[in-house]
Amino acid sequence: MKNDMERCHVVYDVLKTHIQFGAYRFGDVLPTMENNTENFLVSLDTIRSAYLQLEREGYITLSQNVGSTVIKNYSEQEIEQNVQLFFSLRKSALIDLSRSLRPLFTNAQWIGLKNAPSEIYNNMLELRKDHGLQPFIAFNHMMQAYDSLGNDLLTRLLWQVYMFFEAPYLCVPDNPWCDFAVQEFAPQSLDLCLKQDWDSLQKLICQAQDFLSVSLCRFYKERITLQSQEEIPFTWNSYKKASQICYSLAMDLLIDISLGRYPVDTLLPSLNKLSRERKVSVSTARRTLSLLNGVGAVKSIKRIGTRVLPFHETAGNCDFTNPVVRKRLLDMAQSLQILTLSCKAVSEITISSLDAAGIQAGTEFLTTMETRQMYQLVSYDCLDLLRKFAPYEAIRTIYGELLKQLFWGYGLRSMWKEDDAPTDSYISYYKALLQSLKETDSIRFSRKLEELMVHEFHLTITKLVQLGIVEAEGLLIPDL
């Protein structure tokens, strides 16, 4: 992972929390910077920056001979106050996130472990013999398993979830989840992988996710007594770095174009006007328009402006040789993979959670497709329905960001041949999904949506490879 200030701040916060919770006491020496690059899966520069910030804030001293020594001397009462404050500020977000993990990630974790190279398991066996499976080692084991999916976007998302939730929770003294994760789940999952007992592994993963949520809720009920008026939400934005602002802006403009806020054949605002309206620099606005040109949504003409292209012209104006465009299309494919792996479980809990009013609202939302006559977008509309109606905020947040990524493929739809995607097939899916929704048949709805998503994923990867974006081949196509 690349070094950036956002990631450095997250690492700093986690290490500071470990000190505040008493995981590292006065006089203790933190792990070496080199060891923590492996623990946090970040660069040495990022760890060094976090350690320097801890030193500036008076938490540690840095010495070439001794290392990083904790100089904060919290009393037991202060440690308890730190725990109470931290978790009271995040109560709703953490409980919500704990309930979101199983539908979001269980399938990806299972498929990742099934397809992980054998050397990962051999390395973990050696670590278990030498050191036991400590929390960070167990986390790294899981992250390496996810690597087999070939999805950098998923890795960044999982890292964000872990640092917000599990890393602080694992370092609370006498934490039953930590004992379970380290002493039961990690070694058992490793043994099941070595035996290739995939059915038992799937059950164990589900059991672990459920136990995490149950133990957290019990922790709040039995331990956290402080009430907070304000709470810190879980957030995730795939483009946080300053150098990536143009990507977020381009995505927003693509959505505006898709919704008709900038009609076909009209001109986008000028560079200066766009800069003022969106509160970005002129250079950021220029990079944004360049990216929109590259994905085929617009065409800039000197002394005239930037024209919004009709849909049938988009493919001919895509620049697939542009590295930035290629990377954004890969982002799209990675988002599609995450959605494909999670849509079945997410749709099951979402449809099951809807009352009569929710079913009616969802039905009205889906039936707009009949008016638009764009049945090829049935999968997107169903995913958007999940984004709107999912019972947990974390799912709605993550699905919202993933769905935005799909807009990078704006210019690709006009390239799909009719025989690749017969309209009759999509109409059939639409009718089946709509009927399942009306009948609150979450099982049938989830199966049909997953079936459609697997088809879309196969089609997208095939097309990207044909366009020369061979990196897409590294994405594991789930065998569902």
Automatic annotation (TrEMBL):
Transmembrane segments: none annotated. GO terms for biological process: negative regulation of DNA-templated transcription. The keyword Transcription applies. InterPro entries: Bact_HTH_transcr_reg, Tscrpt_reg_HTH_GntR, WH-like_DNA-bd_sf, WH_DNA-bd_sf. Keywords: DNA-binding, Transcription, Transcription regulation. It comes from the Bacteria. Residues 5-73 form the HTH gntR-type domain. SMART domains: HTH_GNTR. One of its GO terms (molecular function) is DNA binding. This is GntR family transcriptional regulator.
